[in-house]
């Protein structure tokens, strides 16, 4: 079985859930190997728990001051050694840029934003603002696929991983763009919007009062999102915006509250697995795409729902 390389997405060695999802998908296609670029102890055990038999460990002393180009060179050099059957990368802005650069280096086809990948490497993507679902497969070179968060439920396996310390050479050309400053995301105690399994969003219908939206989100362990109308009104920063000009989310559950369902909002959430909407207008377009719809005032419906969930949890 071919090795499947998975680029590890992590923050100071703490592996993000998206990587566990990629390892789970990689196991369908071949034998997963992780590529960890970082300093300090590599999270070999954490990666083995989701099936990484080998972990290529690349010390990032020479890499971390630069933007994405060196990471593409790392993958190029490991691919030359491992001759993998495919390379899987998280569908973040950085992941997609790495994938594009790597595709040129390996003269390979690349597919971005897959929401599923089957055992034959056939991907599923949602395109044209979610109006079409496309199945595709790379037919040239080493398939490079970026996969969106929540594409698979991470599955643990028994087994140990082996760290493979790997030396790489980074070209001067890859060091052209230097990072001058970086700020960690403000800690909110909630999951990151694009990675969250549940997203609870509010729109203009909140009237600027997100209390009920946030209380439900916290009860569900969810991220909070917002429509552009809510962001433009200054109720939430742009980092909360879901949609064509905001973030694209694909959670297991998306709860839209006081959001009409404009095409630009849908573009950011309609691949969510289950969609629930609360809107006081029964004609609101959002009801065309929901699995469950509640016609009512969100300031009444959401507290009742939150209390019910609390009561059932005991
Ligand atoms: P509205 O359309 O005003 O809807 C508010 C809804 O709340 C209504 O359906 C109303 O019935 C309901 N409501 C009111 N009060 C209550 C209540 N008490 N309880 C329950 N329901 C209530 N939009 C995005 O969201 N994301 C984007 O990324 C984005 N990008 C865009 C890019 C471009 C180029 C353009 C032109 C537009 C973009 N938009 C985007 C804007 C988009 O077209 C809509 O204007 C926006 O999504 C509307 O936000 P909304 O649904 O919150 O507000």
UniProtKB/TrEMBL annotation:
PROSITE patterns documented for this protein: ETF_ALPHA (PS00696)
Keywords per UniProt: Electron transport, FAD, Flavoprotein, Transport
Cross-referenced InterPro entries: DHS-like_NAD/FAD-binding_dom, ETF_a/b_N, ETF_a/FixB, ETF_alpha_N, ETF_asu_C, ETF_asu_C_CS, Rossmann-like_a/b/a_fold
Cofactor: FAD
All copies of domain Electron transfer flavoprotein alpha/beta-subunit N-terminal, residue ranges: 4-183
Name of one Pfam family that matches: ETF_alpha
Family: Belongs to the ETF alpha-subunit/FixB family.
PANTHER family from the UniProt entry: ELECTRON TRANSFER FLAVOPROTEIN ALPHA (PTHR43153), ELECTRON TRANSFER FLAVOPROTEIN SUBUNIT ALPHA, MITOCHONDRIAL (PTHR43153:SF1)
Subunit relationships: Heterodimer of an alpha and a beta subunit.
Function statement: The electron transfer flavoprotein serves as a specific electron acceptor for other dehydrogenases. It transfers the electrons to the main respiratory chain via ETF-ubiquinone oxidoreductase (ETF dehydrogenase).
Protein's recorded name: Electron transfer flavoprotein subunit alpha/FixB family protein
């Amino acid at each position: 079985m071919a090795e499947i390389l998975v680029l590890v997405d992590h923050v100071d060695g703490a592996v993000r859930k998206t990587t566990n999802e990629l390892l789970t998908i990689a196991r369908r296609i071949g034998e997963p190997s992780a590529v960890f670029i970082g300093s300090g102890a590599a999270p070999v055990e954490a990666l083995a728990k989701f099936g990484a038999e080998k972990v290529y460990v690349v010390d990032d002393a020479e890499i971390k001051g630069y933007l994405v180009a060196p990471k593409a060179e790392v993958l190029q050099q490991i691919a030359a050694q491992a001759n993998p059957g495919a390379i899987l990368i998280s569908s973040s802005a950085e992941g997609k840029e790495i994938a594009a650069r790597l595709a040129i280096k390996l003269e390979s086809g690349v597919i971005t934003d897959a929401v599923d990948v089957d055992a034959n490497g056939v991907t599923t993507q949602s395109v044209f603002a979610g109006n079409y679902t496309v199945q595709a497969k790379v037919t040239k070179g080493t398939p490079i696929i970026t996969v969106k968060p929540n594409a698979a439920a991470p599955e643990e396996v028994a087994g140990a991983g082996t760290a493979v310390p790997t030396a790489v050479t980074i070209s001067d050309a890859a060091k052209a763009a230097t990072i001058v400053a970086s700020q960690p995301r403000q800690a909110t105690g909630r999951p990151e919007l694009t990675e969250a399994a549940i997203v609870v969003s509010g729109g203009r219908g909140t009237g600027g009062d997100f209390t009920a939206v946030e209380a439900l989100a916290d009860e569900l362990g969810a991220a909070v999102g917002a429509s552009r109308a809510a962001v433009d009104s200054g109720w939430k920063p742009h980092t909360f915006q879901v949609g064509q000009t905001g973030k694209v989310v694909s959670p297991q559950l998306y709860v839209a509250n006081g959001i009409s369902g404009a095409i630009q909002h849908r573009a950011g959430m309609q691949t969510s697995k289950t969609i629930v909407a609360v809107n006081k207008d029964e004609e609101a377009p959002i009801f065309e795409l929901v699995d469950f719809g509640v016609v009512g005032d969100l300031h009444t419906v959401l507290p009742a729902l939150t209390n019910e969930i609390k009561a059932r949890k005991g």
